[in-house]
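Many introductory courses stop at the sequence. We go one step further.
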Amino acid sequence: MAEFRHRFTVDYVDTDALGIVHFSNYFRYFERAELALLRSLGFDYRRLNRDMGVAIPRVEAHCRYLSPCTFSQEVEVELWVEELRDRSLRYGFRIHNRSEGKVAAEGWVTVVSIDISRFEAVRMPEEFRRALTPYLREG
């Protein structure tokens, strides 16, 4: 099983009045890593929508906050696939605060494959499923 890692520094706009990353931005960080993974595999939302006729909206999300991140710190989002089903998948995430050497947050997001013309759940395109299979964490 491979894990995908995406690094960046915390932007000032991501912080709250106390100077720490606002809780809602961790979900943006999850999505930022997901998009980087998809791009590395030759996919993006436009390709899924336009060329394959599907979208992958979020239907469930969870984040457990463990240690704060602040402006200009380097973070790394670790991403893997926890479940890969016919019509859905669950990504697992871990955010590392590399500047502090701590795990900042852990969580997951479940997405469902839908036909964008009918707005109904459909089987994920096989090419997309195959591309994600190396990131599937067993057990």
